[in-house]
Amino acid sequence: MFRKTWISWLQLKHQKAQTLSAALGITFITVLLFMQIGFRSSFLNTLLDLPASFNADVVMVNSSAVTVLRTPTFSQLRLNQTLAFEEVERVAPVYWSSILMRDPEGGEKYLRKVQAIGLPLTWDVMLLDAVHDQYDKLKIRRNVLIDAKSKDSFSQIINTVQAGEDYSIEVRSGRDQSSIRVTGLFEVGVSQSANSHIITSDATFIEAFNRSRNQINVGLIQLRDGADPATMAERMNTYLPSDVKVVALPDLLKQERAFYEFQTPIGIIFRFGLGGAVAVGIVILYQILFQLISKYIRDFATLKAIGFSNGQLRRIVLGSALMLAVLGFLPGLGLSFVMYDVIANATALKFEMTWEVSLIVFGAIAFICVVSALLAIRKLNDADPADLFG
Amino acid sequence: MANDHIVKIRGLKHSYKEASTMKQVLHGIDVDVHPGQNVFLTGYSGSGKTTLISLVGCLRSVQDGSLKLFDEELNKASARKLLAMRKRVGYVFQHFNLLDFLSIRQNVQQSLEIQPDYNPREARKLSEEMLDAVGLGDRVNDHPSDLSGGQKQRVAIARALVHRPKLLIADEPTAALDTSTGRDIIDLVQRLSRAQNSAAIIVTHNMRILDSADEILHMIDGRIGTAITEQISLVLPNLDDRHLAEIASKAIAREYKPGDLIIKQGDPADEFYILTGGEAHVFRLDDNGNRTELATFSKRGTYFGEMGLLTEHGTRTACVEVHGSQPTRLLAIKGSDFAEMIGRSRATRAVITDEMWSRFNTDGTTPLKRPSHHPVRDE
């Protein structure tokens, strides 16, 4: 089957206990990485879910906004000014606000971090599952849709709506208090900044949360076919006053991701966690490989004596390292599948085992193994074939 | 001829760094090893044997002098060249050095997997054939841990010879084995290496196997000396170590050029000779000067000169001359020392007397002088 004897594998197979402990060490690192990357991906993806659903080519926000989810308001007038460009097909103002919702379980308590979104019901402004199909419901004042993937504390509302009944509940925005009627469901999923979402018409939003048309949060701009979003954003920024800025949607998503990843404490903690897991992995595997080489140092010297080159011996050690990577990664992947499921159910965060994440983790494990092997390979210098004589 | 030498060493010196000084361990070594030749290297610990074979085996770099292996100079050879040369040598180690995690076939096959013309199917076949040749053909899938010491060394020999190297280097191949197994191993090494016309350099302290050497090199303090003790021990295996050392101290190494006459018929017999190198031819002249060819000695360890010493009239009964184009090397032992030597061991005396009778019956008429006046102290 193989052209040459698979020394790396046979060495590992011969040292079963050592190989098992090495594989378990790598499994541990694999799970650690999956958790770190899973949390990070969940954190970033859930935060980006809403902006990623904008059905727009370019987006307008207040120029002082650092993130689209916490943007100060600006006048709809600015958004309408973009219609002066003949490349603009249509525009839509989007409102949002973090509100409180009375706890369905009763008492005086309110559920926190509910993201309320107001849309014009003219076209499918946000590409969220089932929203556009329920525009008719939203045309009735005070009607809202609620996120079916909200946290468990919203389950009474969701269950009622799923059963086909409306659910009226009190909400507060700032000092204003009003009542809304939940009439349908859509899906986004919770994030670090929202335990639930509700979507309503712009008219209801303005009425229930005391907003005016001059206080929009995001302006969505669709361009005609053939118009380049980046060029248009640049032209609009030149044309419009500096109180607003226009960004192409892909650039906006990149900026959002970079902001949360590099400028928020939680993003920095994740990166440190990831780096720590990799460093711990390198140290553990280095120790294991170093011991393995030390154990076989006389064999390596013998192979050198009979004509194996240093490169061939290095390939044997690297081969062992990569085999350990696979042996440790596979159970780690299985374990992480289970843990993702448990965490997703427990937290309602989006923990999805994707090919992309699996490949990233395997790449990190392979990196750990290769770096550890390269460090441990220096021990091969101790394998002096001349020592075999005498 | 350029390819007449497997190993040709001239003026080889080597030093190791010891603290801030350099300690010289080889002092101008000259050695020749020819195709098919079995050279045994003896010497005390620290005499430089290991350094010499590690240099010949391309495991160290040559510092000073000339070392030609397969007619290629190793002085100033690059690491890449040394590596390439190592693939053309076979190694047998004292402690076998088999890889426990490989089957014995896989162990043997390692020597083939590094060859440029490696072919997996052919390598497997050759490995199994070589294991068959060392008597382990039915155990190719066993692991070294399943084998005895002698069997492990057989595997090591198979690994050393499977790629048909022109030189085999064996370091104390019998040291970890019992006497009988050690003898078998040496026989095996010689049989297989000679079948392949490979030269072999075998480091050993085992006097009992020296008789199978084509040449014995004895190292003393980094120099090649005459292996007097070893040569005498071959001829007189029944002498104990003390007597052997005593006689060895009295033996004189001599070298005769081609054409030289070593013994002249009719001269007084005053020395006993042991052949250590080259060839010697024996002939007899009759009263009319006609020459009768009697024998040619080429086997190292062959002795002569005993007839004149043991017969009544004490004169040489034949002539002995250098044979061939190579010098003849001898160990000469004075007649009085010879008499003492055979007087000390009845077995030694018996061996030499038997040999003399054999020669006497073949070619001579000279009556024997019994050596019974010498006291016998051993047995």
Automatic annotation (TrEMBL), chain A:
Residues 275-381 form the ABC3 transporter permease C-terminal domain. Its main location: membrane. InterPro entries: ABC-4/HrtB_transporter (IPR051125), ABC3_permease_C (IPR003838), DevC (IPR005891). The keyword Transmembrane applies. Keywords: Cell membrane, Membrane, Transmembrane, Transmembrane helix, Transport. It is found in: Cell membrane. One of its GO terms (cellular component) is plasma membrane. It is a multi-pass membrane protein. The chain crosses the membrane at residues 20-39, 268-289, 316-339, 359-377. The keyword rRNA processing does not apply. This is Putative ABC transport system permease protein. It comes from Shimia abyssi.
From TrEMBL, chain B:
Residues 7-246 form the ABC transporter domain. One of its GO terms (molecular function) is ATP hydrolysis activity. GO terms for cellular component: plasma membrane. Transmembrane segments: none annotated. CDD domains: ABC_MJ0796_LolCDE_FtsE, CAP_ED. PROSITE patterns: ABC_TRANSPORTER_1, ABC_TRANSPORTER_2, CNMP_BINDING_1, CNMP_BINDING_2, CNMP_BINDING_3. Keywords: ATP-binding, Nucleotide-binding, Transport. InterPro entries: AAA+_ATPase (IPR003593), ABC_transporter-like_ATP-bd (IPR003439), ABC_transporter-like_CS (IPR017871), ABC_transpr_LolD-like (IPR015854), cNMP-bd_CS (IPR018488), cNMP-bd_dom (IPR000595), cNMP-bd_dom_sf (IPR018490), MacB-like_ATP-bd (IPR017911). It comes from the Bacteria. Residues 235-359 form the Cyclic nucleotide-binding domain. Pfam families: ABC_tran, cNMP_binding. This is Sulfate-transporting ATPase. It comes from Shimia abyssi. The lineage of its organism: Bacteria, Pseudomonadati, Pseudomonadota, Alphaproteobacteria, Rhodobacterales.
